[in-house]
C-alpha cells in the first residue's frame, strides 16, 4: 500500500492536540529517529520505535508482522485494532513530507503497516511535517532533553573516592529518560539507591548478575553479556517491550 492515505500534520496542529488532555490521550506519537537521538531530546508524549538490522529484515514482511516488530507493545496494538486511538502520528528527524521518506526506512515502513492494519476511519494515520527538528522549534515546551552531563570531579572529590571502584559503579543509576535509568550490577544491588530513584522494575541484561530483590521489584532477565563477542540485537524487541509496558503503566 502506498502512503497517499497518510495525512500530513503541521507541527502547530500537533502541538494544539497535545495541549488538550483528552486529545493527547487519544494520540499515539511514534518517533522513528535513532534511539540515542531520542534519548538526547524528544517530544515528551512520544514513544521510540525500535530499529536495527534484524528488525529491518522482519519489517519487510507482511504488514501485521511488520507492525508487531515496530510496535512490540501488545496492549497498544490491541488499542489500535479496536480503534480506540484517534490518530497515530509518525515523525522522523526532519522530513518535510512523506514523499521524502526512504522506502526502506522505519518511518515509511511504519506508516505503510499502520495504514494497512488500522481500522478504516477509526484511527487517522499521520506524518509530522518537518519532523522533530521543526516541532522542537515550534513547541519547545512540549519537548524534553536528557539531563546535562555531570561536571568532572574536582581533585578533592577524586582523592576522596575509592579508586578501586570502577567509574561505572560509582554514584548511582543515570536517568536517561523520565522513566528510564541506566545502571550497573553494583547499582542493582543497592536497595536504598533503587528506591531513592523511584524504580519499580529492573531489566537485568547479564548472565551473572542476580535479581537481588525479586520480592520488591518486577524483573526481566536477559542472560547475555554486553561485549563485542555477543550479538545482543536479538533481544532488543523483548527488552523494548518490557520497558514500554512499564512506561505505559507509569513505572520506572
TrEMBL record:
Residues 23-144 form the Rhodanese domain. The keyword Nucleus does not apply. Its EC number is 3.1.3.48. GO terms for biological process: endoderm formation; negative regulation of MAPK cascade. The keyword Zinc does not apply. PANTHER family: DUAL SPECIFICITY PROTEIN PHOSPHATASE (PTHR10159), DUAL SPECIFICITY PROTEIN PHOSPHATASE 2 (PTHR10159:SF109). Belongs to the protein-tyrosine phosphatase family. Non-receptor class dual specificity subfamily. This is protein-tyrosine-phosphatase. It comes from Marmota monax (Woodchuck).
Amino acid at each position: 500500500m502506498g502512503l497517499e492515505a497518510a495525512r500530513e500534520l503541521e507541527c502547530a496542529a500537533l502541538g494544539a492536540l497535545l495541549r488538550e488532555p483528552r486529545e493527547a490521550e487519544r494520540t499515539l506519537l511514534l518517533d522513528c529517529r535513532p534511539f540515542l537521538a531520542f534519548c538526547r531530546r524528544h517530544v515528551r508524549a512520544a514513544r521510540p520505535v525500535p530499529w536495527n538490522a534484524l528488525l529491518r529484515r522482519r519489517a519487510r514482511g507482511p504488514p501485521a508482522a511488520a507492525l508487531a516488530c515496530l510496535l512490540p507493545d501488545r496492549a497498544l496494538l490491541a488499542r489500535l485494532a479496536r480503534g480506540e486511538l484517534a490518530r497515530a502520528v509518525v515523525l522522523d528527524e526532519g522530513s518535510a513530507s512523506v514523499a521524502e521518506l526512504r522506502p526502506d526506512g522505519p518511518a515509511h515502513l511504519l506508516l505503510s503497516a499502520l495504514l494497512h492494519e488500522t481500522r478504516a476511519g477509526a484511527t487517522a494515520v499521520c506524518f509530522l511535517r518537518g519532523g522533530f527538528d521543526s516541532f522542537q522549534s515550534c513547541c519547545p515546551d512540549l519537548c524534553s532533553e536528557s539531563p546535562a552531563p555531570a561536571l568532572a570531579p574536582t581533585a578533592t572529590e577524586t582523592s576522596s573516592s575509592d579508586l578501586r571502584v570502577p567509574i561505572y559503579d560509582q554514584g548511582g543509576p543515570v536517568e536517561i529518560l523520565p522513566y528510564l535509568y541506566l545502571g550497573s550490577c553494583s547499582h542493582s544491588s543497592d536497595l536504598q539507591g533503587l528506591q531513592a530513584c523511584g524504580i519499580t522494575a529492573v531489566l537485568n541484561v547479564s548472565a551473572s548478575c542476580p535479581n537481588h530483590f525479586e520480592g520488591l521489584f518486577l524483573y526481566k532477565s536477559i542472560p547475555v553479556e554486553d561485549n563485542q563477542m555477543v550479538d545482543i540485537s536479538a533481544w532488543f524487541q523483548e527488552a523494548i517491550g518490557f520497558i514500554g509496558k512499564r512506561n505505559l503503566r507509569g513505572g520506572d
